[in-house]
Amino acid sequence: MATAMETRCSRVWSSFLFWVLGTLSQGLVGGAASYTRQLSVELNPGAPSVPLSSELLHVRAVGNNDTLHFLFSSQGAPTLLLVHTNTSSSTVKVSWPQFLARNTSGSLRVEPEDSILYSTAVLFSRLLEYDDVNDTATPTSNFFPPYELQNFSWSRFNLSGPTALVCGADANFTSGSLCLQLSVFESEGHGNLWPRLLHSANASQLRVWLDGVLPRADHSRFLLELQAVSGAAPLSRVDVHQSIDDEFTPSIFKVSQWVSSENSSSDILGFVQWKPVAYRRPSPAVEDATPCRHSDPRAQSEKAVAARSGLITAFFSGGEAVGLNVSFGLAGEPFYNSTKFLSWTALVGIGSPPVDSFSPLVLTIMAVCLGTPMILLLLGGVCVCLHKRRAASETAYEPIN
Amino acid sequence: MSDFEENQSLLGEDDARSFTGRRTPRDPDRPLPAICDPSRFLHRVVVLGFMCFLGFGSYFCFDNPAALQTQVIQDLNLNTAKFMQLYAWYSWPNVVLCFFGGFLIDRVFGIRLGTIIFSLFVCVGQVIFAAGAWVNKFWLMEAGRFVFGIGGESLAVAQNTYAVNWFKGKELNLVFGLQLSMARLGSTVNMNIMGWVYSKMADVFGSTGYATLGASLMIAAVTCVFSLMCALVLGFLDKRAERILQKEQGKTGEVIKLTDVKDFPLTLWLIFIICVGYYVAIFPFIGLGQVFFIEKFNFSPAEARAVNSIVYIISAPASPVLGFMVDKTGRNVIWVITAVVTTLAAHIMLAFTFWNPWIAMSLLGVSYSLLACALWPMVAFVVPEHQLGTAYGFMQSIQNLGLALIAIAAGAIVDNKGYLVLEVFFCACICIALIAVMMLYFVDYVRGGELNQSASARAKLQKEATAEAEIKRCTSKQTKGELARLAPMSAFCLRNRYLSRLGAQLPDHCSTHLSSLAYRSVLK
Predict the structure, then answer these.
(1) Touching check for A384 and chain B: CB below 8 Å?
(2) Is B151 exposed, middle or buried (0-12, 13-18, 19+ CB in 10 A)?
(3) pLDDT tens per residue across span A219-231
(4) Taking the first listed entry, what is the main subcellular location of this protein, grouped into a coarse class (chain B) (predicted)?
């Protein structure tokens, strides 16, 4: 009798458990239905033929009542321009002769002009190399002449869906290349390759890698110089957030966010987000990770920045420019020479940077682990009570026998 | 059966010897100085010194990989899963050897030769391990850890056999306590010194790399050579004492009968589950701890090694205190539940907060010592005495199996899913232990609550039992020889016998039936 009751009990309990779990995981994971955008990709909009190293990619991401324009160009230093408009019908107009001449502001316009909410551009300006003889990884001296990315000869864009790949090489490279891959997303998700950053429909991902380029010294380490120009608020500060969740980027517990905001308290308008890690192999394992650090952002002359990039010249007239360096490797870490490969990934987007939450896997395990002992406690308590009562009733009947 | 007879005679004789043996030096005309006289306290102190350092090398080298985790991974270009193989290979031989360690010592080698052989295994294993690092051959390192594992656990058994042989009826509890502290000391010193040794070696070699790592591990092997010398000296002293005192070689007195497994009660299986579920969340975690503290909490390598060793540091003084506490209060199941829940809390803290890990690791240290004090003696309450050897052997065997498998799994999890999922995984293991201990509580409750009795209730029962036994003994004095063999030991005897395995401090008069069935895991 008791056992039958027990089994029925446990069946009820287990179905209850599944129900609780189901609701929990729905509420925490599926409930936050992610924002989606319609993407349309266009290479060199409105131009019949474009010379090499001057291509322009336009990805239009249309939301419910706004549009994000991602413009990526290899004219000069590779530049990504983000323009956020408050209508779903804004368009990009390029006057190609002026755009190719690289001297007129306004040769690339987003219309209607008064619909623009926010615009920011990020460019990869220089690749710096230094000889870290004493293995201290402090880039202060022993610099080699920097590679200016605006002088690279860039390949044509290699498109596959909303992903574009462009590779370039300096005249001094004897082998290898520097490649950039831009990915734009329809909805929220994680990348396939480490660091598997969480992206949303409001952010694009840029992966930069240096492959097979011969270092100029055995102990060479590299730095990448990034510059940013913004229409409204500049990307003024880098926040480093700690995160307990390293499920998607094993052993990395930090996120760096280079953000723009009018003042420190107001909402974030745009961001560049990355995890302080680079990888030394194309398809990395965890041991190929190498830490990276960033310098404090510094104000730059807008003119000098615009001179590097055709896209910035064409779109911005004025605006504030900021720059920072990302340096790869720490003291004691293997030098670039060991694998001759280095890749780094960042998100560029508008609004607040996406924040990782616990995955369903973690939530399910924890719920089951903590839930089962609780249920067992209740079940056991009930069983013990029943047992006690039965024992009591048995003794109560004894005198009659 | 013959085993049993031997044990009986050994136990009986030993009691007698402790009194008569003192006055039988070989040459009564020329008394030996106290330090050379095996029957004198001073000489035993010297022996104790060698005994303590006998295990030092193996304890020191066991956690070498954990102490040099970053260096091992970097110099040999390993991933975490491969790194954890070093721990798995240590555990594999012990899945089987737990059953044979005692047998080998008693029947094949004898304690002296056995100890020397096991020390040799430890020594050779560590040298192979270091050589593997030196020539950058990972399979050789794994082979080294395997050989090291063959010697390591069995050496712990041998060490305890020596202790019983020399100190039974004298300072045995103190000796167990000291050996325990030495084991902890070995682990702690290793955790905190190997990084320094490595950096010195890096200075000598001019750079870091696998040769530097190999050299550092070779230096660690010196502790094993030292332990081997202790084994040789101990063998000599023991032989000499045997000659002078005409005593027997020590025996582990362990009887393993694998067919007993089918008779194990449900409660014992639950204890096995607790043991595996709990320990797999401790040792593999310590093995992986260093990098975790560096990455998540931004600790310096030295600081990370220190916080990683706090578990060992705490358990050295906490074990006797907690052992005493459990002893005085009884209610083992409640103590085990407390320990498991505290460990769960510590792991949850490490997983989901950035709180200073000193808090969580200290909690872990205390709860881990408490668990050892409360869990291991419970085995003696649920199986009859003649099955104890098998039960403990089996428990150790599946514990080692669990450790080997979970070590590999833990490494793979870190590589692919990171430390959060690893911690969640360890929480899951602890939860399995928690479920098992709760079931144990209920099963025990339904069956009368024997395991969870308070100390006073237990004392009362035991009094009745001894009185009964006394009556029986009186009524059948003529057949004593036959019957005594069959009569079960009182609960009191059993309890003390196995509590003393933990190095728990018992009054000397309580420990009449001390066995040396002490294994490394018990001491851990």
Answers:
(1) yes
(2) buried
(3) 899 999 999 998 8
(4) membrane
